[in-house]
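Q: I have two molecules that I believe assemble together. Could you output structure tokens for the complex as a whole instead of separate predictions?
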Amino acid sequence: MKLSKEEVEHIAALARLRLSDEEKEKYSEQLSAILDYIGQLQTVNTKSVEPTSQVTGLINITREDEVRESQIFKELVESAPEQGEDYIIIHKVFENK
Amino acid sequence: MSLNKLTLLETFKGLREGKFSSEELTRDCFKQIEKFDDKVKAFITLDKERALAQAKEVDKKIIAGDSLSPLAGIPVAVKDIICTKDLKSTGGSKILENYIPPFDATVAGKIKEADGVIIGKTNCDEFAMGGSTENSGFFPTHNPWDLSRVPGGSSGGSAAALAADMAVYALGTDTGGSIRQPASFCGISGLKVSYGRVSRYGVMAMTSSLDTVGSFAKTVEDMAVIMKYLAGRDEKDSTTLDIAVDDYSGEIIKNIKGLKIGLPKEYFVEGMDSEVRARILEAAKKMEELGAEIVDISLPHTDLAIATYYIIVPSEVSSNMARYDGIRYGLSKRDKGDLLDIYLNSRADGLGREVKRRVMVGTYALSAGYYDAYYKKAMQTRTLVKKDFDDVFEKIDAILTPVAPTPAFKIGENINDPLKMYLEDIFTTPASLAGICGLSIPAGFANSLPVGIQILGKRFNEKTILRIGHQYQLATDWHKQKPNLQ
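A: Yes, here they are, computed for all two components at once.
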């Protein structure tokens, strides 16, 4: 199975990746080889097999819902590429109408 | 003798007996780094000033007779995927090239609490995606045994640094072999712990259902000391279990008479280097001499492991990599365009080839219409692989296998064939899917390159594989061999 250029572009758009033409070409080839390989699982009979998403056996680990100070609020905001006094600045998400 | 060549237990003894100071020991590590790291390229960042200041602090405490942990004053190299407060942590990625975390990962915090000396941050495949350290966003690391070869990966910088005696031990992470395989390629000991044994808090996530944090050491005896400090429940990582941490150092001194060790026939396949095969069988013989019983076993779903692994990993990667978006931290290209352009331009410049490739595969596998065929299917075949191990561990204590089908390969040899690179993980990924523990220790050479054996144990039974490893090292001296760096 070979992925078309359009399929590669569609996946890249979903993944928020901007690919060069060269990358698109290369990935279409490499992804096809990888998908062919992992596609072999489809021949395995797993009819009554439960899926394993993790192996700890733990379910819903919670703690008391109490407020705790992170102590590093200021440093976290300062890690952002653009910030105000105590907030992170991003580009507009919605257009004004 | 240069102090950097000593094992952890030897440095511990020397420091307590006042034979040398932590400052002298730390300086010797930096001397070695200054001498050889322009060739090996194990480190992304060094932290000499702070390391020496820390060493001097510990020396004062030793003189004052304070009660100290066995790790106190001992230099450690830390994989750059592990966040260290106020010390650049890149994960081997350009997107975090200048990222300085305002907090410590739990394991880094534990080392600091134990008065350990962090000397620097080691190179790795970008966000741990790779098996050669060639996928680092900065430069490849070279194997100290043969500089034209890879050290393995993804924790290749940590393995190379330790093999070259630039540190006394080193921290790494293992998702599908990223500690075990570089340990084998570099002729040192490496432990992948059971999933949930060591906290991943503050460690950059790659595949959350498989990622583990572990250690490299010069001997298994050293490893037992280190793991005692790293293991345990952490409230900040809800996958860690509240199971008591064993007294590893006490357990490993027991002999291995009567232990049942399985040799799985599926791990001795065509295409495997004949020298590697010979080393594993010799190790089995040695364990038999030590009183263990070697039994033939079968893990029938082994051939499903790679395909299963390379669906689960990219799927979780595609989700975990979404955080690198140029908004909250890391590289942000915001000079032109709108919000979407920030995402696209930051990720285009910041993420490397293999990361993008996995994000693409994972996005495809999880996209509408394909989820059942890929991800759900892989979670089911994962059950089959895991059940193989559950079944055999009813009857045996440990499993002995090769770590990788070949010794270290040449830099550049596999870089343009990602599928071939994935197939190199054939002997390490099954244990990862099952969440069990695995120890990789030196067992000889193939064409002058180190070869490791893998000892696999039940979940949370690190004590048994460490015991087998230590008893093997008492009877052999492969772990004492050193590369001839010049």
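A: One point stands out. Chain A has a mean pLDDT of 92.
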